[in-house]
Specification:
- The complex is a heterodimer.
- Chain A is α+β, with helices and mostly antiparallel strands.
- Chain A has a single domain, classed as Histidine kinase-like ATPase, C-terminal domain (Heat Shock Protein 90, 2-Layer Sandwich).
- In chain A, strand 2 and strand 3 form a beta hairpin.
- The longest helix of chain A is centred in the N-terminal third of the chain and has 23 residues.
- Chain B has a single domain, classed as Transcription Regulator spoIIAA (2-Layer Sandwich).
- Chain B contains 3 helices and 5 strands, in the order ββαβαβαβ.
- Chain B is globular.
- Classes of the chains: A alpha+beta, B alpha/beta.
Chain lengths: ~140, ~110
C-alpha cells in the first residue's frame, strides 16, 4: 500500500483507521487481531495529535506506512512533532486495573491497550522524526505451520 | 464513521444508545450526553448504555465511562448492554467489567 499523510487532528484519525483496516485485510489478519491493531494505531496517533502537536501549540501531519512480508504486517506512524516516546508513559499496574472506575487515573490506558494488543511495538527517534512501529504476525498458511 | 447517540428516559432509568465509533474525536459528545443525563433534576436510578451498534471504542471511550461512573456515584449502577466481542475485550483487559454491569440484552 502507498503511504498516506494526514493532518494531525483528531477528526482526521479515522482516515488512518481505514488505512489500517485495509492493510489488516490485505495481510489476512483475523477479526480480533485486526481490531487490536487498529486500536493500537489509533491510541498512539491520538497521543501524537494531543501530546506531540496540540499541547505544544504545533500543527503538522502524520504519515502512515504499511509493509508486509510473509510472516508479518508492520504499520509505521511518522511525525515531526516534539520527541514523544509513548513507552515512557507511566505504566498501568495490575493494581490500577482492579480499582473501581471512580478512582481510576485517566492516563496510561491507551498505551496499555497498545502494548497488549500488538505482537511488537517499538518507538524510534530518527532524523528529528518520531517513528512508532507496530508489528503483527500474519496467520501462517497450511503449508508453513 | 462517526458516533450517533440517542438519549431516552423511561421512568427513572436513562438509556443511551451508541451507534458507530467511539474514538477520541467522538468522546466529547459522549461525555456531553452523560452530563445531560445526570444534570436532570431527578437523577436517574440507573444508566443503561446500549452498545449493539458500537463497532469501535478507544480508551477515550473508557475515560468516558469513568466520567459516567463519577457522575452516577456509587448508588447508581451503569449497565452495558449488547457489547460486541471486540469492545468487550477492551473492557475486560482494562478491568472495567468489575465496575459496570454487563448484560446481553436489557429488559
Amino acid at each position: 500500500m502507498e503511504p498516506l499523510t494526514v493532518p494531525a487532528t483528531l477528526d482526521d484519525l479515522e482516515i488512518l483507521a481505514d488505512f489500517v483496516i485495509q492493510a489488516a485485510r490485505a495481510a489476512g489478519l483475523e477479526k480480533k487481531p485486526a481490531y487490536r491493531l487498529r486500536l493500537a494505531v489509533d491510541e498512539i496517533a491520538t497521543n501524537i495529535v494531543t501530546h506531540g502537536y496540540q499541547e505544544m501549540g504545533l500543527v503538522g501531519d502524520i504519515t502512515i506506512y504499511a509493509d508486509m512480508d510473509e510472516e508479518t504486517l508492520t504499520i509505521t506512524l511518522e511525525d515531526n512533532a516534539v520527541p514523544y516516546n509513548p513507552l515512557e508513559e507511566a505504566e498501568v499496574t495490575e493494581e490500577d486495573l482492579h480499582k473501581p472506575l471512580e478512582e481510576r487515573k485517566i492516563g496510561g490506558l491507551g498505551i496499555f491497550l497498545t502494548l497488549r494488543g500488538v505482537d511488537r511495538f517499538t518507538y524510534e527517534r530518527m532524523n528529528n522524526r518520531n517513528c512508532n512501529i507496530f508489528t503483527m504476525r500474519r496467520p501462517s498458511s497450511g503449508a508453513n505451520p | 464513521m462517526a458516533l450517533t447517540i440517542t438519549t431516552e428516559v423511561k421512568g427513572t432509568e436513562a438509556f443511551l444508545t451508541l451507534v458507530g465509533q467511539l474514538d477520541s474525536a467522538a468522546a466529547p459528545s459522549f461525555r456531553e450526553a452523560v452530563d445531560q443525563v445526570f444534570s436532570h433534576p431527578e437523577k436517574p436510578s440507573k444508566l443503561v448504555i446500549i452498545m449493539n451498534g458500537l463497532e469501535y471504542m478507544a480508551s477515550a471511550g473508557l475515560r468516558g465511562l469513568v466520567f459516567a461512573k463519577q457522575k452516577a456515584g456509587s448508588n447508581v449502577p451503569i449497565v452495558l448492554s449488547g457489547v460486541t466481542e471486540e469492545v468487550y475485550e477492551t473492557i475486560e483487559m482494562t478491568g472495567f467489567h468489575h465496575s459496570v454491569e454487563i448484560v446481553e440484552k436489557y429488559e
